[in-house]
Design a protein that fits this description.
This protein has helices at about 10-20, 35, 50-55, 70-80, 100-110, 125-130, 140-150, 165-195, 200-210, 220-230, 245-255, 260-275, 280-290, and strands at about 1-5, 25-30, 45, 60-65, 90, 115-120, 130-135, 160. The chain is an alpha/beta fold. Strand 1 (about 1-5), helix 1 and strand 2 (about 25-30) form a beta-alpha-beta unit. The model has no long low-confidence stretch (mean pLDDT about 95).
Length: about 300
């Protein structure tokens, strides 16, 4: 079927390639002209701007927006929607906050436009392995767009999880879980790395754990891959960003009075990773010195 992809970054660009391989006709647009040129191939037509996106699509139009959450989505929709007509469908496949998706769905509904939110997982591996798609939509919009989801996802890798907003809600919690899993692996491998009794090969252990162990997983396969290149990860700085979903998961847990200590602490660990030196740790050292005479290290 025909659709447009707005945003040709690492995710959007690979999704275009997978869609074209699946026989879809894709209209592409990105604020970077170079990104658009990189997708010049059979089955892909480039749009000059968002108005041109709408002009090149045959109604009912399907437009997939794959840009960073927040202001970029808001700006894109603000420029795109005036060129759409009732019956068209807008898909947000990024990591938007579900409350924003609920608001956008309601605003578009007043214009007769369907809003579909698709929580998308798979990263750079999605091109070859497929993407896990968590879809919030009306039944009619989901059914109309299902050929797209079938192409992008592996078998059983997509689901209509609820109405608009539900897709990004499920993806938010998915990423919160991811935070906890990553932190557990990180702490375990750090203990192994710090051992004074044994000089352990982390790549060997990661490979071992991927065969029959209860902690085997795709994430640990990626750990094995990373350690195979550098067992000490010497070229990597221990600075960890968060893209928002972990924070939102913690906020939602608090709103619902659901205890989520692992996810919460994994988020706080990421914040700690961004400090060259912790002022809070200095305070603790100073207080221990004051009340117990414990030695402090000086610069």
């Amino acid at each position: 079927m025909q659709l447009a992809m707005i945003g040709l970054g690492r995710m959007g660009g690979n999704m275009v390639r997978r869609l074209v391989q699946g026989g879809h006709e894709v209209i592409v647009y990105d604020s970077s002209a170079d990104a658009v040129k990189g997708h010049a191939t059979k089955g892909v037509n480039a749009a000059k701007d968002l108005a041109d996106v709408a002009r090149l699509l045959t109604p009912p139009r399907v437009v997939w927006v794959m840009v960073p959450a927040g202001a970029p989505v808001e700006t894109t929709l603000g420029q795109l929607v005036p060129h759409l007509t009732p019956g068209d469908i807008v898909i947000d496949g990024g990591n938007s906050n579900f409350s924003d998706s609920l608001r956008r769905a309601e605003a578009l509904k007043e214009k007769g436009i369907e809003f579909v939110d698709v929580g998308t997982s798979g990263g750079v591996w999605g091109l070859t392995l497929g993407y896990c798609l968590m879809i919030g939509a009306s039944p009619a919009a989901f059914q109309y767009c299902e050929p797209i989801f079938t192409t992008l996802a592996p078998p059983e890798g997509y689901a209509h999880v609820g109405p608009s907003g539900a897709g990004h809600y499920v993806k938010m919690v998915h990423n919160g879980i991811e935070y906890g899993l990553l932190q557990a692996y990180a702490e375990g491998y750090e203990i192994l790395h710090a051992s004074k009794d044994f000089k352990l090969q982390l790549g060997q252990i990661a490979k071992l754990w991927n065969h029959g162990s209860v902690v085997r997983s795709w994430l640990n396969e990626l750990a094995e891959r990373a350690f195979s290149r550098d067992d000490q990860l010497g070229a990597i700085r221990g600075y960890v960003e968060d893209s928002g979903e972990g924070r939102w998961t913690v906020e939602e847990a608090m709103r619902l009075d659901v205890p989520a200590p692992v996810i919460t602490l994994s988020l706080l660990a990421r914040l700690r990773s961004r400090q060259e030196e912790s002022f809070g740790a200095k305070v603790i050292a100073a207080l221990r010195n004051e009340f117990g005479g414990h030695a402090v290290q000086t610069k």
